Amino acid sequence: MLFDAHCHLQLPKLQPMVRECVEAALRHRVPKMVCNGCCPDDWGRVLQLADEFPHAIYPSIGVHPWWVEESIGGDWRGQLSAHLQQRPRLCIGECGLDKARRGNKSLWDVQQDVLRQHLELASNEQRPVSLHCVQAYGSLLEQLKAHLRPLPFTPGIVLHSFAGPPEMVPDFARLNCYFSFSSLVLHSDKVVRSLQAVPLDRLLIETDSPDQLPQRLTIPLAAEPTQDATFQTVEADGMEGRAPVRYVRSESDGSWVAVNEPCHLGWVCEGVAKCLGRPVDEIRQLTYDNAVRVFDGPWT
Ligand SMILES: [Zn+2]
């Protein structure tokens, strides 16, 4: 079995076929997936999906660094806190730091402040946190040390789509961080070096769907879909038999684009196993067990 440690089933791209996506995941031996909300506007959809598929979808909600500007002035912290009170199994994130989207100095300060508040809530409520980090691993490490209590943080901290410097892995591991690898590992030697630095008991895998479709799954559509089609499916050969690759209409220019989904996790698992020179079955089992430890708890 495989556990998708990070995806976004609530995003509009996947809505025409979200049920088909969950069913395909179950058929392809991905019975569990963490669905991450990115801003208060999409939290309701995340929670709804988790209620609809309570055994498969683990809900997690937070304010992603790309959405911090919209959060200014709103009571996102009060809403997040209320949801955490109501749902003892709810996780925190996606939140984090992104220097590529830092904007002006004040927006970077807002990113840091929003992250600090997530870490305080995680400490108070003892919930796992899923973090996004781009070009800011030094600042992230400082924030974790300053605001998560107690350290090492028992519920676990997930560094999603990890691409940080290999030499920083031990520092994060000491705080009880887990390192989640996406299809980036199939396409980047730098990420492979980071993967090779990670202790096996901290390794996770994810699709980050609907983004990060593995390149080999970009199979062209055989024919242009009919005008009223909401999505179109082709098939690819994978570890667990033939898997669907679905095309949806792009919101920007109306063209058909292939999207990633949790049933594609096997390709990431195979890639990770190959980079580490270990059997696929071993990576499948240990990443599943690690994810259960983080997301199922016990957290206190
Ligand atoms: Zn994400």
Automatic annotation (TrEMBL):
CDD domains: TatD_DNAse. A divalent metal cation 2 binds at residues 132, 160. It comes from Vitrella brassicaformis (strain CCMP3155). One of its GO terms (molecular function) is hydrolase activity, acting on ester bonds. This is TatD related DNase. It comes from the Eukaryota. A divalent metal cation 1 binds at residues 6, 8, 94, 208. Pfam families: TatD_DNase. Keywords: Hydrolase, Metal-binding. The lineage of its organism: Eukaryota, Sar, Alveolata, Colpodellida, Vitrellaceae.
